[in-house]
Automatic annotation (TrEMBL):
Recorded GO CC terms: cytosol
InterPro entries: ArAA_b-elim_lyase/Thr_aldolase, Low_specificity_L-TA-like, PyrdxlP-dep_Trfase, PyrdxlP-dep_Trfase_major, PyrdxlP-dep_Trfase_small
Family stated for the protein in its record: Belongs to the threonine aldolase family.
Protein name: Threonine aldolase
All copies of domain Aromatic amino acid beta-eliminating lyase/threonine aldolase, residue ranges: 5-286
Amino acid sequence: MRWIDVRSDTVTHPTPAMRDAMARAEVGDDVYGDDPTVIELESRVAARLGKEAALFVPSGTFGNQLALFTHCRRGDEVVLGDDCHIVWHEGGAAAVIAGVNLRTLASDQGVLDPAAVAARLRCTDDIHEPKTGLVCLENAHSNGRVIPLDNMAAIAAHAHALGVPVHLDGARLFNAATALGVDAARVAAHADSVMICLSKGLAAPVGSMLAGSRDFITAARRKRKLMGGGLRQVGILAAAGLIALDSMTQRLDQDHANARRLAARLDALPGISVMRGQLDINMVWCRLAPEVDTVALMAALTAHGIRANPPEHGMMRFVTHWQITEEDVAKLATAVESGLTV
């Protein structure tokens, strides 16, 4: 059976072109700094994001936590939204690796109030207060929303006025750029460092990138080694990353269009309502009515060859990617409908 997997865009398999490139990749030892394919990928990512340098890292969580570890001193505070990926889905790593405190504030579906951020920046010499070491933003947000660039600019202005750097969790930055119709560098412009994932909608099998100033990346490279991220013949993975960067970033609009098609089909069904305000990229978030039998729904999806994550707190998410076709969207909607009417 060919499964239709909409649990996440992390489930994507490498494309045939990626597999071929990986087999032929020219490699070296990246810890020695002589893997030519990694060097090319890092240079091209830095250029696409408008930064001086970039660094290959094993995962998005690794990249975000390496940024915190590099920017901050132990005991610093990091200001960020209470619903962001670093808070919810990175295992409390900030306390273990960087030794920092996460000072969260409420967000409006991923959008932070610049004035509220400014009010939480602590940069005085008061011995009772921790120092603010970093502000973290996320775009596209993992709730499926793209954050307006003027909002990011306003927050960065407050932080930079006090000498506080800004890190951008850009795991799906290219989805955000596609939705906004701008170059990726525009999304990254107000951040001092930015992490992007190659392994989500861009379909590379492994890897993310951390970009920033040359000095920042030099410091991050040393800490990457400390964290166990100094890999060897990474060119095999970087070869897939180059295709992700060149080709897969150009087709994300197809995933977004399929998400909208799915949303339209699901929104017409009884007992399910699509969160239209979170439909900017390749995610469809739905709220299920209390009377929906979620066990029957999940059983129906499985019977139709569909892998989906079960609802949490009455919410369900479906994620499109390069292996989800328009026909798959129709099959998924039909399967959901059958599960709602069991």
